[in-house]
């Protein structure tokens, strides 16, 4: 029965830790012969240190607990086999012998790793959306991230040029040299029927198979005909980029012949398309509103909401879904993803409080400058994993306009730290004396040459304007590799 079992089974002598028997499934899974395994110990098979292996054996012997948990076994070729192990003790020739039964969970582990990679990909995409980068750079990085986190072999991203009414290729990954230019030429054909145009027209994803066979029949795609024998794909899955019911473009995911996205991957691609649509729409809104300070503030807030709260909500959903998946078979394993979801929920609440405060600066009058700075510090620490220390003391006696100026200066300084400094620690201090109030914000980041001008960077200019309106002063001390210290001083009267 053991020899015919599909599970991986082997027997280990407790005293010597030597393998004394194994079944065909284990030998096939690991690539060893029976004689080879009989000359090995459990330490040669389990990819863990001896202390951990011995601790598990003691637990089985002393507590009679058959569950060992997930482990990695080492194959003969050096690769790893993911297994879920249970063990018990029997007497064999009057010797205590450990019977280990290992269930192959390689596919489950692969899917979990892929899920984690997709979460990380969405996080990276969300982070890239708030960087001051050209749209082509953002979408090229997005295409590369999506291919690495999916089974697609290439990705093309196109946008609709509203002025010209044409499709424009703006991002790609995994395509041969010259393919982008050929694809652009095909898109420019006025009547070219393609999965991309159909997805944009219908606002629905399109799955297109046998592309190599059908492409030569379409003269509008002649520019791509020469690539058909060389590219590894034959299936396209195209997802439209939609914003407020309007198509902005599409993402084309390519697959080898006979392959395509499963349902879980389609959901992931939908989330990616939503992120990309946000990036495109934000870029267009920002371009239209350039020079309008009020709208720039709203855009900044929208980016922060998208980068923090929406990301936290997505992570909470994944955590709960994972817990629901493992709950029927292993309730204990559900605790970890649920704890993860709770942690994200708490971080999201902290972030929302900080953002609500930014939306309602008039609450400075009720809550005060000290409370506002504490919330700003907590928000940065929660969403960017930067350690923020505060030394603020009691609420200063100053006009509301002076408090708001100091708060906005601190807000801008923290924003610059997050965006440019690559800092691990930030300190915010508030000092009062008879002549005025001094705000100090310092970090241990990369710093910069404070004597240089930075055209186009409005943060430092905004700080100087705010402190000047209060008849105050602003000092900036920094140097390459020396962090940044900003001192803003306003009169208290």
How would you characterize this protein structure?
It is a single chain. With 493 residues, the chain is an alpha+beta fold. It is built from 16 helices and 15 strands. It has helices spanning 24-30, 34-38, 42-45, 50-63, 106-129, 135-148, 179-187, 195-202, 211-214, 222-225, 263-288, 293-326, 335-359, 364-384, 400-421, 458-469, and strands spanning 8-13, 19-22, 67-74, 80-92, 95-104, 154-161, 166-173, 206-208, 235-243, 246-255, 387-391, 425-432, 436-443, 473-478, 484-491. It has a five-stranded antiparallel sheet with strand order 2-1-5-4-3. It has a five-stranded antiparallel sheet with strand order 7-6-10-9-8. The protein has a five-stranded mixed sheet with strand order 11-12-13-15-14, covered by helices on one side. The mean pLDDT is 81.
Quick structural overview:
This protein is an alpha+beta fold.
Summarize the helices and strands and which ones pair or pack.
Layout: E1 8-13, E2 19-22, H1 24-30, H2 34-38, H3 42-45, H4 50-63, E3 67-74, E4 80-92, E5 95-104, H5 106-129, H6 135-148, E6 154-161, E7 166-173, H7 179-187, H8 195-202, E8 206-208, H9 211-214, H10 222-225, E9 235-243, E10 246-255, H11 263-288, H12 293-326, H13 335-359, H14 364-384, E11 387-391, H15 400-421, E12 425-432, E13 436-443, H16 458-469, E14 473-478, E15 484-491
Helix pairs in contact: 5-6, 5-11, 5-12, 6-11, 12-13, 13-14, 14-15, 15-16
Mean pLDDT: 81
Oligomer: single chain
What separation lies between the terminal Cα atoms? 90 Å
Q: Biggest sheet: strands, sense, closure?
A: 5 strands, antiparallel
How big is the Rg?
30 Å
**What class would the helix/strand composition place it in?**
alpha+beta
Extract low-pLDDT stretches.
none
* Count of individual beta strands: 15
Quickly count the helices. 16
Per CATH, the class of the largest domain reads: Alpha Beta
Classified in CATH, the superfamily of the largest domain is GAF domain
CATH-derived topology of the largest domain: Beta-Lactamase
Global morphology: flat
Helix content: 40-55%
Q: Order of strands across the widest beta sheet?
A: 2-1-5-4-3
CATH architecture assignment name of the largest domain? 2-Layer Sandwich
Q: Beta-strand level of the residues, as a percent range?
A: 15-25%
**How many domains, as an integer?**
4
């Amino acid at each position: 029965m053991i020899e015919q079992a599909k599970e991986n089974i082997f027997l280990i002598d407790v005293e010597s830790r030597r393998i004394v028997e194994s079944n065909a499934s284990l030998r096939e899974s690991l690539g060893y012969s029976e004689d080879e395994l009989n000359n090995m110990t459990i330490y040669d098979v389990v990819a863990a240190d001896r202390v951990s292996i011995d601790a598990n054996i003691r637990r089985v012997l002393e507590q009679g607990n058959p569950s060992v948990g997930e482990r990695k076994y080492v194959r003969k070729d050096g690769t790893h086999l993911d297994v879920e192990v249970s063990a018990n003790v029997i007497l064999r020739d009057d010797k205590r012998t450990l019977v280990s039964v290992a269930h192959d969970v390689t596919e489950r582990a692969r899917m979990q790793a892929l899920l984690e990679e997709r979460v990380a990909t969405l996080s990276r995409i969300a982070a890239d959306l708030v960087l001051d980068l050209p749209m082509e750079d953002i979408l090229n990085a997005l295409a590369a991230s999506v291919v690495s986190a999916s089974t697609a072999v290439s990705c093309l991203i196109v946008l609709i040029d509203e002025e010209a009414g044409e499709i424009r290729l703006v991002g790609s990954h995994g395509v041969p040299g010259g393919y982008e230019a050929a694809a652009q030429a095909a898109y420019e054909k006025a009547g070219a029927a393609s999965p991309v145009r159909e997805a944009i027209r219908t606002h629905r994803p399109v799955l297109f198979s046998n592309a190599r066979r059908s492409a030569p029949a379409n003269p509008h795609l002649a520019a791509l005909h020469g690539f058909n024998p060389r590219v590894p794909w034959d299936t396209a899955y195209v997802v439209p980029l939609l914003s407020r019911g309007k198509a902005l473009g599409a993402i084309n995911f390519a697959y080898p012949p006979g392959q395509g996205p499963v349902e879980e991957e389609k959901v992931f691609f939908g989330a990616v398309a939503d992120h990309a649509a946000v990036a495109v729409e934000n870029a267009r809104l920002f371009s239209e509103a350039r020079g309008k300070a009020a709208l720039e503030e709203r855009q900044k807030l929208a980016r922060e909401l998208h980068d923090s709260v929406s990301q936290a909500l997505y992570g909470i959903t994944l955590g709960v879904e994972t817990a629901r998946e493992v709950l029927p078979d292993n309730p204990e394993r559900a605790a970890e993803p649920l704890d993860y979801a709770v942690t994200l929920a708490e971080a999201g609440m902290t972030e929302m409080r900080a953002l609500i405060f930014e939306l309602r600066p008039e609450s400075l009058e009720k809550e005060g400058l000290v409370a506002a700075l504490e919330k700003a510090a907590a928000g940065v620490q929660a969403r960017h994993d930067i350690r923020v220390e505060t030394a603020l003391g009691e609420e200063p006696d100053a006009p509301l306009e002076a408090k708001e100026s100091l708060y906005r200066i601190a807000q801008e300084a923290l924003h610059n730290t997050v965006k440019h400094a690559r800092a691990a620690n930030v300190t915010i201090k508030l000092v009062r004396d008879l002549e005025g109030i001094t705000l100090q914000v310092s970090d241990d980041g990369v710093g910069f040459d404070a004597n240089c001008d930075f055209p186009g960077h409005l943060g430092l200019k905004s700080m100087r304007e705010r402190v000047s309106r209060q008849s105050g002063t602003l000092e900036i001390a920094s140097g390459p590799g020396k962090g940044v210290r900003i001192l803003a001083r306003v009169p208290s009267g």
